[in-house]
Design brief:
Elements (H helix, E strand, L loop, with lengths): L9 E4 L6 H9 L3 E8 L6 E8 L28
Antiparallel strand pairs: 1-3, 2-3
Length: 81
């Protein structure tokens, strides 16, 4: 997948905890690894999904701010300007 990755793109490796060698190859290619671990909807065990971001990864904000509010969020801002 690495040779086909566009500048600014990313690769999703599901169940990355099952594929440590694949994850190592992606890290060795200079990609940034971000792990999401937890329980899935139907299994009694947890697993990890990893994103591998190209160094030029930059996703624009959809609603003019990041993080965006979720659909049912209370819209509160506590940060001081």
């Amino acid at each position: 997948a690495v040779p086909y990755l566009r500048s600014g793109g990313f690769i999703v490796l599901d169940n990355s905890d099952w594929y440590p060698n694949s994850a190592a190859i992606l890290r060795a290619a200079g990609l940034i690894q971000i792990d999401f671990a937890g329980f899935g909807p139907i299994n009694a065990y947890s697993w990890t999904t990893s994103l591998f971001l190209h160094r030029a990864f930059d996703i624009p904000a959809v609603h003019g701010r990041q993080p965006a509010y979720s659909a049912c969020a209370v819209r509160v801002v506590n940060d001081a300007k």
